[in-house]
Amino acid sequence: MISAIVPVWNGRDLLAKLLDTLDAQTLRAGELLVVDNGSSDGAPEMASGRGARVIPMGRNAGFAAAVNRGIREARGEWVAVLNSDVELAPDYFVRLVATDAWFATGKLLRTGADEIDGAFDLTCRGGTTWRAGSGCRDGGAWSHTQKIVSPPWTAVLFRASVFERVGLLEESFESYLEDVDFGLRCARAGVTGTYDPAAVAWHRGSAALGRWHADTVRRIARNQVLLLARHFSDRDLTTCWWPILVAHLLWGGLALRHGRALAWLQGKVAGAAAFQAARARSFDSGLLERLRAAERVIGDLQPGDAYWKLYFALCPK
């Protein structure tokens, strides 16, 4: 049985569209859990009326806490985690189950555009992450099935047993990059999944706040620092000090271009303040080798992106 988990914070109409596509699945979820982060627009009431079990969080506890609550209460052998602003092709679940992997995700397209929203995540030595394919035209490299270690938690299917091996999402991240943290833990544990482009979903993206909302930028900037704290050993930090500086300053430049320099700075300060408390007790000895391999893939798949052109010009692979 598939347990579908949908964290919700308002967005009633978008949620209704997702529920329509869940009803249309050729392999339907046997359990639908809508975890409500304090919606005020009737989204949870609508979902309940359509057969979902609504789990109230009582406040906006963030994506990670809401998803973890759903995972703890799910009863299925498979667990699907879905953003409320996605729509799934009718064969989405049946194709992902057929991969028989620890986890699987499909090709995420941007709603209303002929371009990729994301396929899988890749993290560089600087500790920043690229959602592979984001902004690229469909086709080519995005049409091939691949083994992956870091799936976007936008529309992903897991074996429930993977959480016993890798753990749940890190709730201190609240929202943004908590899935990247999970992917880095998967890589360390030797847990891999599958990207299957034949399974297609459409994602509106940043529907709750907006792609460059100040809170979005602040949380991403903070969580980039927390990723360093949780996964980079002292030796890794020393070895990669220059790529780290370049990657974070370049991302700050993007924030500045969108009028969010203050939010970026606030996020970095918050991350620095929480750095020691977030520090892991042990680290992945193979991390840098994995990040270098990820950089080679980024360079191959996204040669024209200005951010990565500058990063690789300053930090050769």
Task: Write a structural description.
With 317 residues, the chain is an alpha/beta fold. The protein folds into two domains: 2-203, Spore Coat Polysaccharide Biosynthesis Protein SpsA, Chain A, CATH 3.90.550; 214-314, no CATH class. It is built from twelve helices and twelve strands. The protein has helices spanning 12-23, 43-49, 63-73, 92-98, 162-166, 178-189, 214-231, 234-239, 241-257, 261-278, 287-301, 306-314, and strands spanning 2-8, 31-36, 53-56, 78-82, 86-88, 103-110, 116-118, 121-123, 129-131, 146-148, 155-159, 193-203. The strands form two sheets. Strands 1, 2, 3, 4, 5, 6, 7, 10, 11 and 12 form a ten-stranded mixed β-sheet that branches. A two-stranded antiparallel ribbon has the order 8-9. A hairpin with a 5-residue loop joins strand 8 (121-123) and strand 9. Helix 7 (214-231) packs parallel to helix 10 and helix 9 runs antiparallel to helix 12 (306-314). The longest helix is centred in the C-terminal third of the chain and has 18 residues, at 214-231. It is globular.
Q: Which architecture of the largest domain per CATH?
A: Alpha-Beta Complex
Helical region count?
12
The major β-sheet equals:
10 strands, mixed
Overall shape? globular
CATH class of the largest domain: Alpha Beta
Task: Give a short overview.
The chain is of the alpha/beta class and 317 residues long. The chain has helices spanning 12-23, 43-49, 63-73, 92-98, 162-166, 178-189, 214-231, 234-239, 241-257, 261-278, 287-301, 306-314, and strands at 2-8, 31-36, 53-56, 78-82, 86-88, 103-110, 116-118, 121-123, 129-131, 146-148, 155-159, 193-203. It folds into two domains: 2-203, Spore Coat Polysaccharide Biosynthesis Protein SpsA, Chain A, CATH 3.90.550.10; 214-314, no CATH class.
